[in-house]
């Protein structure tokens, strides 16, 4: 975030900063190809995922 967004932009208002940062996060989390995912987007990686997640009894996190 710092190297790819914050250091490259200058904002004139807090609202402008919030919009630009939110757009960056959305793009990075949904459309940007990640080396850790074999250069797939998160959506492409999720579509290839074959894991079946089973809830842990007594755990509050799904």
Description:
- By secondary structure, the protein is mostly helical.
- It is 39% helix and 0% strand.
- It has a domain at 6-46.
- It has 2 helices and no strands.
- The protein has helices spanning 14-30, 42-48.
- The model has no long low-confidence stretch (mean pLDDT 83).
- Mass-distribution shape: elongated
The N- and C-terminal alpha carbons lie at a distance of 28 Å
Q: Which structural category do the helix and sheet elements fall into?
A: mainly alpha
For the sheet with most strands, the description reads: none
H/I helix tally: 2
| Helix fraction by DSSP (H/I, runs of at least 4) | 25-40%
> Residue-averaged pLDDT, rounded?
83
Residue fraction in strands: under 5%
Low-confidence stretches: none
Alpha carbon gyration radius: 17 Å
Please tally the β strands and state the result.
0
**How do the SSEs run, as a string of H and E?**
HH
